[in-house]
């Protein structure tokens, strides 16, 4: 059998709910205030950590932009071999700088449109195929590009791993990620 209706009107139900809330708050006031205080402290702590991280990233970007002006002539060369850069990934700014340099080198290599880049290189390969089609074309056109891109990736991946470690992602995460 269902319970009998105590409050017959909407107004009476709302008033009863208000009274129940008041009684609950009066009974558990200290616990509620303590939870609110802990929540505020936790939020403030996270805000301060986020603000510190944001400041560190902005400092790193400023540093990278100012150092990037001096390195313009260095980026104009066709070599992308800064193997010592991998060894200097000791802090967040150096990791961000390594990724920025790799991105700049990739953009310099590929250009504005990756599809046009791929079409251009594949058309060069197709043009290198002889008319008699008995031999293969010049595979070194594609192999050299793959080698250049792999060299850039070999510089970026350690920097990304270091950034993840700086942000608190542990090697266990990497192990779990490689399993899935």
- State the end-to-end distance: 53 Å
* H-E string: HHHHHHHH
Which strand-content bin applies to the residues? under 5%
Into which percent range does the helicity of residues fall?
over 70%
Low-confidence stretches: 70-86
Determine the structural class based on helices, strands and strand pairing. Answer: mainly alpha
Overall morphology: elongated
Q: How many separate helices?
A: 8
* Main sheet record: none
- Gyration radius, in Å: 31 Å
The number of E-state strands comes to 0
Query: Roughly what is the average pLDDT, rounded to an integer?
Result: 76
Q: What oligomeric state best describes the polypeptide chains here?
A: single chain
Give a short overview.
The protein is mainly alpha-helical and 180 residues long. The protein has 8 helices and no strands.
């Amino acid at each position: 059998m269902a319970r009998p209706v105590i409050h017959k009107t909407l107004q009476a139900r709302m008033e009863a709910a208000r009274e129940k809330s008041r009684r609950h708050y009066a009974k558990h006031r200290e616990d509620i205030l303590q939870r609110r205080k802990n929540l505020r402290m936790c939020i403030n702590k996270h805000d301060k950590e986020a603000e510190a991280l944001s400041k560190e990233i902005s400092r790193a970007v400023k540093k990278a932009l100012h150092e990037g002006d001096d390195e313009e002539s260095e980026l104009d060369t066709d070599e992308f071999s800064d193997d010592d850069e991998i060894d200097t990934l000791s802090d967040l700014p150096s990791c961000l700088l390594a990724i920025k340099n790799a991105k700049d080198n990739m953009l310099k290599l590929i250009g504005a449109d990756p599809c046009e880049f791929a079409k251009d290189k594949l058309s060069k390969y197709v043009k290198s195929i002889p008319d008699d089609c008995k031999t293969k074309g010049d595979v070194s056109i594609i192999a050299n590009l793959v080698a250049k891109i792999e060299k850039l990736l070999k510089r970026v991946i350690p920097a990304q791993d270091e950034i993840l470690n700086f942000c608190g992602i542990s090697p266990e995460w990497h192990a779990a990620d490689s399993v899935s």
